[in-house]
Structure formats: C-alpha cells, structure tokens
What does this fold into?
Amino acid sequence: VPTFFVQIEQAEIAATKANLASIRSAVKLYHIENNRQNPKKIQDMVDSGYLRIFPEELLTPAKKEKNSGGVDNSGGWYYEYLGDSHEPIIRVNLLGKDKNGEYFSNY
It folds into this structure.
C-alpha cells in the first residue's frame, strides 16, 4: 500500500509539472502573438484560447491563481504579471517540499 501512495504522489507531481510547463509555453506564445504583451493572468490565456482549460495544480488539487504577494501555500498557481518587458513569475503556490527535497514553488 505505501508504494501505491508514493506512485500516486509521483504521478500528481509529474502532472503538475506538465501543467506548469503548459502555462509557461502558453505565456510565450501569447507574448509572441500579441505584440509582445504578456497575459496579466492565467485566466486571460484560457479566455483567449491559448489554454484549452484552466490547468489544475494536482497536489492540493486547486484550480485557482494568486496574482501578488508571493507564494503563500494556498494551492493552485502563483502568477505575477511584471509588465510586458519581463516574463511573469509562474510557480506552484505551495511552500512544502516533495520527497526529493525540492520545493514545490521551484518547479
């Protein structure tokens, strides 16, 4: 049974990392196709079709985003718009570490 739970957690981490990569890719495409403007939030990319659905962060799981003040461990995504000349900060909004000792917010 413990091995099963470890495998579930590893799958959730892998899916969360894949969703994070999708968000980051969508930001780059949005920036290129919208006259070098960055989306102000993740929902903007969903609304404009750059993301098909709002991606889940599967560790909590949460379909939400926080847009200022830093990572606060409430789950979902931390997405901070820094203007059009800087890439936004995009992180998992969790403070803990995974089984390998890597902070979730550093993915």
